[in-house]
Amino acid sequence: MSDIIKLLPDNIANQIAAGEVVQRPASVVKELVENSIDSGANKIQIVIKDAGRTLIQVIDNGCGMSRNDALQCFERHATSKVQTVDDLFSLTTKGFRGEALASIASIAHVTLKTKQKDHELGTKVEIEGNKLLGNEPCTCSNGTSIEVKNLFFNVPARRNFLKSDSVEFNHILDEFERISLAHSDLQFELHHNNQEIFQLHPGILRKRIIEIIGKQANDKLVPIEEQTAIVSIAGYIGKPEFAKKNRGEQFLFVNNRYFKDNYFQHALMKGYDGMLTPKMFPSYFIFLTVDPKKIDVNVHPTKTEIKFEEDRSIYAIIMSSVRQALGKYNISPTLDFDREGTFDLPLEMKNSPIVEPKISVNPNYNPFSSNLTKDQNGSKTTSVKGSALNAQGFGNKNISPEDWKDFYQIKEFEDEPHQATIELEIPEKRDYLIKDNYLFASIKSGLMIIHLKRAKERIIYDKLMSQFVSEPIHSQQLLFPIEKSLSNKEKNAWQMNEALFNRLGFFGNLKNEGLAIVAVPSILAENTIMDCVDHLFSELDHQEIDKGELAHFIAVHISASASISLSTEAKGFADSIIEQLFQCAEHIYSPRGKKILETLSIEMLTSNF
Fold it and tell me: Using CA atoms, how far apart are residues 67 and 431, in angstroms rounded to an integer?
């Protein structure tokens, strides 16, 4: 049998390596900017076109390269940072594997211009798919400029997997934010399609955070600092009241290198115990300084996963540091034993006269009477054979069929706190009962139970889907615009997706401080507008949403709002819900796959008794 194992050609090996290192345009930005930082540059410019598909250019004023180094840097595993095995455990630079430029050059058209400060001429190198097209002297500025054009030109399958420009540019913004936060002492510029997105000047960390997140972040930050023999912690954490529904503003760094770690994220969340509402996430910008010999950054090709030798100790230190920072600035709840035992009255009641409460008694009430009476609060009760039976039918004495008939015809539905806008009065001779969020209806085979909120969600979803495909959702002008503060990243998301927002019924004007929302979907309740907008920004962050998903989350917000509760008669309300629900092609399950209705047969009811 002949030999079948052969060495891979260099071009195939480089493309395989590129699949690990270069996942999308943002990966190229990260590798090139990190190389610029390692070169000692204090000013770095990033120019992007078409979210990196057409052009990614990084210009720095670093040390530059010699002619030989300019050629050698495109070879696989060519690096100036690792010479021995011990060097892997004392790394202080960003890149070290020597795979980035080789991988990028194998899947793009690359032009490199570089010049050292003590040289009159620089070097220009052109590579296309790992093929050297040119190597010649040139006139250029000190430092390095590298252009990456037509990314994945020779790997069409990889290019087809790229998302929309909006999504891909959001990934680039993520990498830019992480690097610029880690190096607040450097100047960064970011341009996209000839538009300036960021112009960051050197300064302290707090200033850099405000430049990236927005001016509104200044009042939300709490300093955190801790010095131990194991780890040093510095940075800022967000106040609990400004927590968000997504993890967009959470940054962890070790030795100025961004990394992800669910274990340490859990430590941070434990530090906020008792101060956050469920499913809310605080902001944090935390920098850890650890002995390089006690961490391993050579775990993942993108170097975002890091192993810590003393991770348990660091976990405890992070958790206690967060609690200490919140307590130091009086953020966490405290017990004040000197506080007087008085009530906190609302401001408008401070000067109101004190009135003694009066207790009223109904002298005509007879608990042994079988007649329908009213108590002092005006609610109806029925007393049967010595047992008080309230409107909900609670009671354990014997009740005659006549009493049941009387009770059935006087059913009442008390307002619940979460259903405050439902005002239903069940008329006689109708077999409907609405309690909390459920509608009970009598059918021939037994009893049907309908989940009202999910039913409304299904109805609205189907209507929106049929409308959204053909025309935009109807919008309603607001009398007073709603102001929403936006980060620079969110401003960019609005600009790139404004047509989509308009199609959903949202119209607004960008201002320096944020967004002024001037119109919203007419079917959306006022108290859910901001939640819906926040949700939309979150969903558009790193993924593409199809029309079905857009209509779905709009329907969810509408069905969750108070405006879905109709104040019409119960007959019309119940009839309308049932009629519209059964007109839907899918009326058993909601758009989220949760059950809308359930039927209980007479046999099932009998078996329970």
Answer: 89
Task: Using the structure block, give the residue that is written with the tokens 């430049």.
Answer: 211
Q: How far apart are CA 537 and CA 485, in angstroms?
A: 12
The structure tokens listed for 431 are 């077999």
Q: Is 355 left (phi over 0), alpha (psi -120 to 50) or beta?
A: beta
Between 37-41, 186-190, 217-221, 399-403, the lowest mean confidence (pLDDT) is in 399-403
Give the integer Cα–Cα distance in Å for 339 and 233. Answer: 35
CA–CA dist 325, 275 (Å, integer)? 13
User: What are 409's two structure tokens?
Assistant: 């015809």
For residue range 66-108, what is the model confidence (pLDDT) as tens digits? 999 898 888 877 777 666 666 566 666 776 656 788 889 989 9
Quote the mean pLDDT of the chain: 78
Within 166-220, strands assigned E span 187-192, 195-200
Quickly list DSSP for 393-428. ----S---HHHHHHHHHT---PPPGGGTT----PPT
The confidence score (pLDDT) of residue 23 equals 86
158 close to 152: Cβ distance less than 8 angstroms: yes
Q: Decide if 79 contacts 97 (C-beta within 8 A).
A: yes
Distance of CA 365 to CAs 325, 361, 372, 375, 384, Å? 61, 9, 10, 7, 14
What pLDDT score was predicted for residue 94? 72
Residues 6+ apart with CB under 8 A from 392: none
C-alpha atoms less than 13 angstroms from C-alpha of 76 in its C-beta half-sphere: 14
- As a residue count, the chain comes to 609
Give the distance between the most distant pair of CA atoms in the chain.
Answer: 110
Q: SS3 of 176, please?
A: helix
Answer yes or no: are the C-beta atoms of 61 and 114 closer than 8 Å: no
Q: How many CB atoms lie within 10 A of CB 439?
A: 21
Coil, helix or strand at residue 2: coil
Name the token pair of 212: 């990236």
Q: Has this prediction a pTM greater than 0.90?
A: no
Choose from 54-63, 325-334, 497-506, 527-536 the range with maximum mean pLDDT: 54-63
Bridge partners, 508 (sequence order): 517
Paired sense of beta strands 187-192 and 43-49, if any: parallel
Torsion, Cα 500 506 509 512, to 10 degrees, reads -80
Nearest to 486 by CA among 412, 541, 404, 423: 541
Neighbouring CB atoms inside 10 A of 518's CB total 16
Token pair of 124 as six digits: 């220009």
User: Which pairs count as long-range contacts for 419-428, CB under 8 Å and 24+ apart, including other chains?
Assistant: 419/565, 420/562, 420/565, 421/562, 421/563, 421/565, 421/567, 422/565, 422/566, 422/567, 423/567, 424/569, 424/570, 424/573, 425/569, 425/570, 426/570, 427/569, 427/570, 427/571
Cross-strand pairs, 195: 192
Please give the pLDDT value at position 558: 62
CB atoms within 10 A of CB 117: 10
Delineate the domains of the chain, giving CATH numbers in brackets: 10-200 (3.30.565.10), 212-328 (3.30.230.10), 364-412 (no CATH), 416-609 (3.30.1370.100)
